[in-house]
Amino acid sequence: MQNLDAAIIGSDYYIPVTTAMSLQVLETSYPPSNGTFSEEAAQYLQPIAQFLAAKYYPLLINVYPYYAYSGNSAQIQLDYALFLGTARIVPDGALQYKNLFDAMVDSVYAALEKVGQSSLNVVVAETGWPSAGDVYATIGNAQTCVNNVISHVSSGQGTPKRPGKALETYIFALFNENQKNKILVYFILI
Fold first, then answer.
1. pLDDT in tens, 78-108
2. Which residues have a Cβ under 8 Å from the Cβ of 187 and sit 6 or more positions away?
3. Number of H-type helices and E-type strands within the chain
4. Rounded Cα distance, 88 and 165, in Å
């Protein structure tokens, strides 16, 4: 990353160099304030986070409430995963979580604090909800989640850990994973 950044700067361009990470690098994510990177991931993420923070480049994260919910539906309410106002508020010290998305993002912020990078900005590079392939992966749930993510992040309210800080977020996948090869072939043929 440092070499690529130096080459870009040496060519008189300003293009931030960053990387994306899955939340699987977290050893602990609940409650969000206990967010920590696994020992294995921390050895790589700490210097990456240090580089990004020094350059004021963001860390890209992939936040999928669906995977957290489907992997632990006995402990996580569907309403909480889908941003529905009927979900039970989840307390974490003085912070109150109304949705799983914010809890997941804030667990990354907490993990970054633990490796000395509390000022590093994160961008949600991928989020969404599948519409097929599982009992929870329905068109209705996908529509509800995506619409509520859009409403939430466009409000600018931020997360409980970063209130009032807009969270740059990108919706991923306008198609289901099992259609990826067909779409890639289509784009190649065009």
1. 999 999 978 789 999 999 999 999 999 999 9
2. none
3. 7, 8
4. 24
